[in-house]
């Protein structure tokens, strides 16, 4: 059972402080509080990255302290074949690479998913080189006081954070830009990025089917925008997979297919053999109007649910910049709409503390 502690702050104001996490230091042999499975999953997108620089150990530990069910990461590869957690293909926007004169010559242009991109590509750096960089906050309107405190972490370090938490915390790693990574990085043993990704999970004991005892002990969703990578991984590991769906104008990196093609009934019927659900950009499920209000929802959620597929939309963000006007600048109103009206099964959020509070406030009963 999850425990919510209520602390009375001085001055008599009761402050909710969800002490559900235990950022680390779980004791072997101790029975861990299980993953909740009674309500939509709270998936901490790149950690608690609304508060701390994304995909850092600090952001993941914060997300666990805040009550996230899953921590999410983008997994990519270094020049020397190590798997690391990093969202962008280039280091420019979220690290201090520009302040390192020794790397100035690395900037170049490469094609990524049908477009030319210029920057410092993560796949041009060894792990040792990446470890000399420091991570920073992506957005100017978020807290930048923690810029420069954290380093890029490996996929193994990410897994360690989840498995050493004091309660059961799931992981939700993405095979990021697999076509690009397989083109840029070569492994001496001839294996592909997808092989290395799955091997890293299996080495740590992951692998059970959705809701099996093995899965409940070590919950995992494997995500990708590349259907071919998910289908390839399905041969290697039983763990549940989620097919990510990009914005309507974006063609898939692996098969060069359109949004309409990959969300057709035929394609969902095909993918449900390999995945337990889909992860759409939320503005494709409930498209915004030109004046930033919500238009009518599409039938994607209904068609996915009719096939027994879960829907985990991305990304929920507290700030006004991201909230459609129907929500009156209230992120809790947005959660209420998506959980109760749209009825999604999981939510990727930059603010797991807010989603956790919403779910605690509206809980009709505790799972036990
Ligand atoms: C990227 O740039 C190269 C070199 O200028 C060019 O040949 C190629 O067509 C460009 N690709 C895209 C997708 O624009
Ligand atoms: C991807 O598909 C579009 C639409 O059919 C086509 O115009 C484009 O040439 C394709 N790109 C490649 C690289 O095949």
From TrEMBL:
In short, the EC number is 3.1.4.46
What InterPro entries would the database entry show?
GP_PDE_dom (IPR030395), PLC-like_Pdiesterase_TIM-brl (IPR017946)
Q: Does Magnesium count among this protein's keywords?
A: no
Name the chemical reaction catalysed here.
a sn-glycero-3-phosphodiester + H2O = an alcohol + sn-glycerol 3-phosphate + H(+)
Could you give a single Gene Ontology term from the biological process aspect? lipid metabolic process
Return one GO MF term: glycerophosphodiester phosphodiesterase activity
For the GP-PDE domain, which residue ranges apply?
40-359
Q: Which family does it belong to?
A: Belongs to the glycerophosphoryl diester phosphodiesterase family.
Name it. Answer: glycerophosphodiester phosphodiesterase
Which organism is the protein's source? Oryza brachyantha (malo sina)
The lineage is: Eukaryota, Viridiplantae, Streptophyta, Embryophyta, Tracheophyta
């Amino acid at each position: 059972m999850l425990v919510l502690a209520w602390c009375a702050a001085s001055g008599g104001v009761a402050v909710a402080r969800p002490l559900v996490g235990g950022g680390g230091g779980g004791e072997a042999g101790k029975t861990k509080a299980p993953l909740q499975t009674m309500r939509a999953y709270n998936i901490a997108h790149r950690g608690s990255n609304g508060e701390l620089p994304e995909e850092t150990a600090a952001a993941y530990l914060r997300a666990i302290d805040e009550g996230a069910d899953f921590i999410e990461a983008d997994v990519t590869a270094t020049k020397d074949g190590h798997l690391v957690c990093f969202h962008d293909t280039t280091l420019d926007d979220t690290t201090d690479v520009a302040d390192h004169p020794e790397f100035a010559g690395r900037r170049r242009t490469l094609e990524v998913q049908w477009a030319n991109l210029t920057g410092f590509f993560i796949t041009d750096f060894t792990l040792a080189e990446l470890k000399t960089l420091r991570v920073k906050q992506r957005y100017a309107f978020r807290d930048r006081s923690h810029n420069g405190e954290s380093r890029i972490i490996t996929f193994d370090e990410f897994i360690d954070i989840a498995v050493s938490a004091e309660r059961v915390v799931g992981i939700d790693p993405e095979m990021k830009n697999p076509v690009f990574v397989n083109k840029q990085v070569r492994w001496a043993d001839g294996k592909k990025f997808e092989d290395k990704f799955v091997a890293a999970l299996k080495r740590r004991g992951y692998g059970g089917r959705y809701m099996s005892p093995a899965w409940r002990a070590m919950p995992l969703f494997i995500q990708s925008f590349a259907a071919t990578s998910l289908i390839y991984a399905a041969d290697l590991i039983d763990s549940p997979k989620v097919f990510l769906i990009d914005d309507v104008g974006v063609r898939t990196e692996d098969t060069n297919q359109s949004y309409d093609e990959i969300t057709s009934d035929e394609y969902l019927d095909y993918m449900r053999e390999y995945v337990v659900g889909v992860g759409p950009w939320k503005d494709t499920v409930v498209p915004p109007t030109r004046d930033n209000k919500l238009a009518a929802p599409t039938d994607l959620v209904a068609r996915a649910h009719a096939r027994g597929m879960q829907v985990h939309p991305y990304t929920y963000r507290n700030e006004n910049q991201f909230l459609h006007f129907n929500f009156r600048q209230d992120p809790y109103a947005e959660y209420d709409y998506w959980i109760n009206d749209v009825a999604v099964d999981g939510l990727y959020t930059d603010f797991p503390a807010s989603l956790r509070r919403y779910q605690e406030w509206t809980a009709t009963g505790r799972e036990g």
